[in-house]
Design a protein that fits this description.
2 domains, 14 strands, 333 residues, Rossmann fold, alpha/beta, 23% strand, homodimer, Hypothetical Protein Tm841, Chain: A,domain 3
Chain lengths: 333, 333
């Protein structure tokens, strides 16, 4: 295992200490239990957004805490759900009296622990709504999931619902927008290599030197098929067909596109992926009106990519364009 | 070789096509010869900044073209200098009548080709000044370099001199600021793994499963020493000692710090590196006043990190904080 770490069991704690040292203007970091809140939390009268999940997907979620996006992120250990206690404490820390929205990727442990945390918070009079993301078209049910896995659309939910909350919308409306983003978003991933969880010390799965996994999950869960590597354009064709056919996306749709790196993929390759994706969408009359190209929801050092498309209406676009100031996503300020 | 590419010889061309499709609001891409200019080029009356070098270091340089930073980037093939023709054409395309600053990383081919391009442009009456970056403290002379290699400080030069040009300063002053940034910046890198140039098809160098290379160059050039992997804190201690002792940085200095990923390093590890760097600086009374943590000057999919520290005065900090709008660096707008 080749990693820039000290003790494997201290990776998340030391990452959080690094974040605290790097971004005191943006966030406050709580070490026991682990959570990150925006520096000015709680924001009185604003709906608060709390997300979280296993670590190893950075910048998700801690990199998205700040003005116009998340109020709190709860990082579990690498590829491990955060505990109800963590989520409950973070929920209390950011509650500003207007309710809290939990944004949960659809993994059984995450869903269960966010539900328990919501019940604890509600028992103390904090109103909590939840949205569960499940945008991965690759497989129905998976290693850690009932139904579809939640992946890239989570970034879009956090940005767009975050802007809606920042604009002062009430909890029910922010939750409705978050659900609308999830319902209109679809993703699929692929991997060329595995990744290694620090405390495991060995690759999560084995893959041949000439193989790739199409439909991989963000923890290395099996996808749709293992096959020989193909040229990038053919890979993107397969992924785009699965994504576009699922919603389905139609001619005239406006979409926000994300070409995401899994952590070990050079940016030069992501632009080659985006090139083909843009050609495909153009051929089908689908208009990519905004895009993100880079590492936004990763799987440690895995080489691979995922594509997320979000069909966006005027309201979603307006909130997408609204200012955001976080460690990993920033514009307009 | 596992890469998301089509034909290895088309990687740079297809990347550029992807950039053109992704960022028409920011840049215009010229395919033959390859160069990227900001969408509103030439900007009349403004000093224009042109940089470039081998591809494979993305987002450097193409990701830094836009308002407040570069006017043009000239990407060579992967790890190969751009040609004089490319640089000359880009220089002409962005010249707005106030002169052009060439920002050149210190590699013999880059230096020679930028010089030839400058002569061609000057023969047509375009005033050209040049700054050569040479911030890498690891080694004196190297595989492709006389003197020190130019690495991470180049990002700082492009941002800060870009803001100075945007503010309307004349060529001599913009060039002086660019040189001041280079003179006050120091870097060092390390690698856990090699990288593979697409047309080569095999790793640039061999490294053992338990080894690392301290002082690596951004093309995989040998560094100071090959040794067994150590804990992250010890690695950062070695790098920081080399960097801090070189200028030398002193108690009371204000610095901008970059912890850069080489392309295949998870962000979680870069924060562990930053944590130690911040502790070291604090212990020495050196005040990190701004930071960048992420992939800013990469070596394809290499796993590793580099640290750059820039001693910043009030003027450099003012231009660092000025608005910038590029694909890879954006704030204030």
């Amino acid at each position: 295992m080749k990693k820039l770490i000290n003790q494997p069991e201290n990776v998340v704690k030391e990452e959080l200490e690094g974040i605290a040292l790097a971004h005191p203007d943006l966030v406050k970091v709580h070490i026991s239990p682990h959570y990150i809140v925006r520096a000015d939390a709680p924001v009185k009268g604003k709906v608060a957004l709390v997300s979280g999940g296993g670590s190893g997907h950075e910048p998700l979620h801690g990199g998205y805490v700040g003005m116009g996006m998340l109020d709190a992120a709860c990082p579990g250990e690498v590829f491990t759900s955060p505990t109800p206690d963590q989520i409950y404490e973070a929920t209390k820390a950011v509650s500003g009296g207007a309710g809290v929205l939990h944004i949960v990727k659809n993994y059984s442990g995450d869903v269960m622990n966010f539900e328990m945390a919501a019940e604890l918070a509600q028992a103390e009079g904090i109103e909590v709504a939840s949205v569960v993301t499940n945008d991965d078209v690759a497989v129905e049910d998976s290693l850690y999931t009932q139904g579809r896995r939640g992946v890239g659309v989570t970034v879009f939910v956090e940005k767009i619902a975050g802007a809606a909350a920042e604009a002062g919308l009430p909890l029910a409306k922010v939750a409705e927008i978050a659900k609308r983003v999830n319902e209109n978003g679809r993703s699929m991933g692929m991997a060329l290599t595995s990744c290694t969880v620090p405390v495991a010390g060995k690759p999560t799965f084995e893959i041949g030197d000439d193989e790739m996994e199409i439909g991989i999950g963000i923890h290395g869960e099996p996808g749709r098929t293992r096959m020989k590597i193909k040229p990038a354009d053919e890979i993107v064709d397969m992924m785009a067909e699965a994504i576009l056919g699922d919603l389905p996306f139609k001619s005239g749709d406006r979409v926000i596109a994300m070409v995401n790196g899994m952590g070990g993929t050079p940016l030069i390759e992501l632009y080659i992926v985006y090139r083909r994706l843009a050609q495909i969408c153009e051929g089908k009359g689908i208009n990519i009106v905004r895009n993100l190209i880079g590492n936004y929801i990763t799987s440690l050092e895995m080489a691979g990519t995922s594509i997320t498309l979000l069909r966006a209406d005027d309201e979603l676009l307006k909130f997408w364009d609204a200012p955001v100031k976080t460690a990993a996503l920033r514009w307009g300020v």
